[in-house]
Amino acid sequence: MSNYLETNPNKDGYFGRFGGSFIPPMLEKPFKDITQAYEKLKNDPKFIEELKYVRKHYQGRPTPISFAKNLTEHCGGAKIYLKREDLNHTGAHKLNHCMAEVILAKYLGKTKVIAETGAGQHGVALATAAAYFGLECEIHMGEVDIEKEHPNVVRMKILGAKIIPATHGLKTLKEAVDSAFESYIPQADTAIYCIGSVVGPHPFPMMVIDFQSVIGFEVKEQFLEHEDKNPDNIIACIGGGSNAMGIFSAFIDEKDVNLYGVEPMGIGKKLGEHSASLTYGEEGIMHGFNSIMLKDENGEPAPVYSIGSGIDYPSVGPEQAHLKDIGRTQVGLCNDEEAVDAFYKLSQLEGIIPALESAHAVGFAMKLAKTLPKDKTILINLSGRGDKDIDFVVEKHPIPNAKF
User: From edge to edge, which strands make up the β-sheet containing 162-166?
Assistant: First the structure.
């Protein structure tokens, strides 16, 4: 496990047996160009300085760590802390990689960025980055999520993005990815596909992990101010897993830190009732990479469900699969009911309205905290704020009458 970050992924984009690049021949050159450009750019002092400037003076980094005093007292166990990615500009961690991907697009001479989005946070972040750097932006989003995440759809349109509805299948995140790839293939000469998580063909899992690792390396310094040691436990929700890899990356070699990726258990254990890929899936190739995925009886990607639109995906990032495979991470589960409960508890006890995706991490952390002594610590990556979810949650789950 020593020097993990120096040896993963390998030159072909594999984390152990997971990852790689499984793409049609017409995309081989564009992806090779992206790989070569990134390998050059990531060590370029000008690129590094531009990204540092943007993060500090535009995004508002570093984001703080907050002690959740009231939530800790409510749970009655371990101390709960929050890494406040909800305070990053646009309200989530997604801008960490979107700004960098658009800089890469400009370096390659592209005039347009294309992407998928589920909850809309990646779409908003990419539309923001495109506006900042002066590129066109095309966002593909499932029809179900367009209705569910209406506030983010409006934000994307205001920012100048063109929204393309995905109208096939379940009309959610997987279908948005399908639609975005189909649109990208004939536009590869002038556009770049900015993948929204640590998924997809190489080099995207590697690049997005690198860009999101700023979260974990900030935590390395910041948590010492609170506890003078590493967190005992770090918790993040998993769909593709970008926010989780962002905070896990700095601690993979730290054996004293437990890493939990929390999957959405939805409303049940049957296929189509959850999106718990690592828990119930098997090895398979989808969207150009090999990982763990949920399959139907024909071996195709299974239907999935979660109340959190950003995490209802039938696979998971290859590094998440690898870290579980080697025993470095543990998988937590949180269902819809627990996520909504956590959504309201964090809101009414701490004055922080979390994204439904992040509420899954909070829900699992609340369960874990109750099993641990009071001298132990839990750090949650609060990956996004819940502005986008408030209308949907209030309509489906009425506001509790009083604080808990």
Answer: 162-166, 136-142, 112-117, 191-193
Contact (Cβ atoms closer than 8 angstroms) between residue 124 and residue 156 = yes
One-character DSSP codes across 18-71? EE-----GGGHHHHHHHHHHHHHHTT-HHHHHHHHHHIIIII-PSPPEEE-HHH
User: Which residues have a Cβ under 8 Å from the Cβ of 149 and sit 6 or more positions away?
Assistant: 119, 120, 141, 309, 388, 389, 392
Cα 214 to chain center, whole Å?
A: 14
Of 250, 267, 276, the closest CA to residue 381 belongs to 250
Out of 182, 208, 234, a domain closes at 208
d(CA 20, CA 354): 34
Determine the pLDDT at residue 369.
98
Question: What type of residue is 94?
Answer: K
Q: How far apart are CA 304 and CA 173, in angstroms?
A: 10
**pLDDT, tens only, 278-317:** 999 999 999 999 999 999 999 999 999 999 999 999 999 9
> Which position among 116, 175, 263, 319 bears the catalytic label?
116
- Cβ-contact 156, 122 below 8 angstroms: no
Question: Which segments of the chain have a pLDDT < 70?
Answer: 1-2, 402-404
Q: pLDDT digits over 338-356, tens only? A: 999 999 999 999 999 999 9
Residues 18, 290 contacting (CB under 8 angstroms): yes
Query: Looking at the structure, do residues 239 and 388 belong to the same domain, yes or no?
Result: yes
Active site residue 370: no
What is the reported pLDDT for 401? Answer: 77
Please give the residue range of the domain that contains residue 65: 61-91+214-396
CB distance 226 to 344 below 8 Å: no
Terminal-residue alpha carbon distance, the chain: 42
143 shares its domain with 178: yes
Active site residue 11: no
For the chain, give the number of residues: 404
Q: Which entry of 21, 79, 83, 94 is annotated as an active-site residue?
A: 94
Catalytic residue, from 213, 275, 358, 383: name it.
Answer: 383
**Alpha-carbon Rg of the chain, whole angstroms?**
19
383 is catalytic: yes
pLDDT of residue 1: 41
* Count of structural domains, the chain: 2
Tokens of 238: 């998993």
Mean pLDDT computed over every residue of the chain: 96
